[in-house]
Amino acid sequence: xxxxxxxxxxxxxxxxxxxxxxxxxxxxxxxxxxxxxxxxxxxxxxxxxxxxxxxxxxxxxxxxxxxxxxxxxxxxxxxxxxxxxxxxxxxxxxxxxxxxxxxxxxxxxxxxxxxxxxxxxxxxxxxxxxxxxxxxxxxxxxxxxxxxxxxxxxxxxxxxxxxxxxxxxxxxxxxxxxxxxxxxxxxxxxxxxxxxxxxxxxxxxxxxxxxxxxxxxxxxxxxxxxxxxxxxxxxxxxxxxxxxxxxxxxxxxxxxxxxxxxxxxxxxxxxxxxxxxxxxxxxxxxxxxxxxxxxxxxxxxxxxxxxxxxxxxxxxxxxxxxxxxxxxxxxxxxxxxxxxxxxxxxxxxxxxxxxxxxxxxxxxxxxxxxxxxxxxxxxxxxxxxxxxxxxxxxxxxxxxxxxxxxxxxxxxxxxxxxxxxxxxxxxxxxxxxxxxxxxxxxxxxxxxxxxxxxxxxxxxxxxxxxxxx
Length: 469
What we know:
Blueprint: E1 9-14, E2 17-21, E3 28-29, H1 34-44, H2 46-51, E4 54-56, H3 67-80, H4 88-91, H5 95-100, H6 124-132, E5 146-148, H7 150-162, E6 171-178, E7 181-182, E8 191-193, E9 198-201, E10 204-208, E11 211-216, H8 228-242, E12 247-252, H9 259-267, E13 271-276, H10 280-285, H11 287-300, E14 304-312, E15 322-331, E16 334-335, E17 338-342, H12 351-359, H13 363-374, H14 385-409, H15 420-428, E18 432-436, E19 441-445, H16 452-462
């Protein structure tokens, strides 16, 4: 193990007291909150499920780190706030992390190679191989031999979502949206995007509420909606197989207002609410309501809204007429018309409710994408396109653990709606002294931690056999 100097560091005195420091504190981890992540993982069996999505061609007699342990190490550390693989050259020496991912030898005392002694978890280079493995790798490959099956990964996330319900859901709203991942190197399939103004990837995400369901990495030289039907179809089929009677609604912005998606939804009994780009014909259909909104604004000085409900068909691209709801809003800055197209019936979804309550709730999807970035989904620094897609799934898995903690353990507490960065600083970053003996691993958490009662409550709730109601 690394030998640190015990020479005292003399600092500026405080009053009459001298201040000294050294490195004799023992094995202290700054990430005591990994206990919470392990319990959240255990509750849904996440890393066990994810491990089944990889084919391991390594020689079983030479394996020191199982696929599940490698995945757990990567996902836990992303959730803890470590964004790069390089961080693991030091994190691999943390006996608390090694214990939580399931290592029987958390201090690495019995490693095969002398150079690895004292290192319980996997190094950055070992973790990197699971990302860089090519799809065609086999037992004859030299280094990278753990192959990811992306279809199984998606199915695993959707199945976890399905099992989260104690009773069949009546309605599910699925939010689909792309975002950009800025690139600074010479990555595979790297293209410049005029709208975003930089070289980037254009991944597509699918969420239900705050629950991550699927992600697909794509180059940016495409229409933002390209491949959306192929992206949605397997997820919809899996959900409907489990819950045949569920009412599914696809919700997205105007970038997905395409004939292919709407026709597919109509053919398969799926409803949709999609934003629409405004044009002259749509604005003409909304002119009466806009005049009313303008008059009211001039009288009251406040923003005024009116809604119109009408049938509409494009001149060339749509195969049929469809219901469109228009919002005529007039504010200090002037007119602000907005439109959505939907398959939902007017008698069941009144126009104001459909726009203000159902469609505008799509704004929460922006928070989900932001949280993905907070969990380093934008760290697409590997040259290989496939490796960068695997990294997206690590962020999705870390996000899922955060969702589980919020949903089952933080309900009714001060951190009930906390985003990942807040949980990292307030719940996960806890000093912990780790003592390892033959019979036990003893973890002494910081006595100065301000949220001790909440921390205990979280662990208790995560270990309950049923979700907190």
